[in-house]
Write a structure and sequence with these properties.
Layout lengths: L2 H13 L3 H8 L3 H8 L7 H11 L3 H5 L15 H13 L2 H19 L18
């Protein structure tokens, strides 16, 4: 298996995402993701960037040119929020912590999805009675 395939699989496992979910989040075809996971091909730069953003890893790490997994989030967490999250985390048991992580991943995945506007439904015309 190639470094890219190994790291893509690792990042997907850490993010708790399937290839189908990753495809939906990124707009990249499931067959492409499957081919990358099987080491048939390596993704082009634009796709690597998209994958890295969706999986919250550094694109260089994903390609194998950087040794450590790093988050790509650029927004610093303020100390107040960080302290509050830490306090809440410590109050949870192991099951609660796992539920919180699962919910957080779902929120991140939902936020990464492009918003689709619902189609407007036209009014149905009523049949005239004679």
């Amino acid at each position: 298996m190639s470094v890219f395939a190994d790291r893509l699989k690792t990042a997907m496992q850490q993010a708790n995402v399937t290839s189908a979910q990753l495809s939906k989040q990124t707009g990249i075809g499931r067959s492409s993701i499957s081919q990358w996971l099987s080491s048939k091909y390596v993704a082009k730069h634009d796709k690597v960037t998209t994958l890295a953003q969706a999986l919250a890893v550094n694109p260089d790490w994903l390609l194998g040119t950087e040794p450590v997994v790093e988050s790509t989030t650029d927004s610093p967490v303020t100390p107040v929020i960080d302290d509050e999250l830490t306090t809440l985390w410590q109050q949870l048991d192991a099951v609660g912590q796992q539920k919180l992580l699962k919910k957080a991943r779902k929120l991140v995945a939902k936020q990464a999805q492009p918003t689709v506007k619902p189609k407007k439904k036209g009014k149905k015309k009523k049949a005239k009675k004679k």
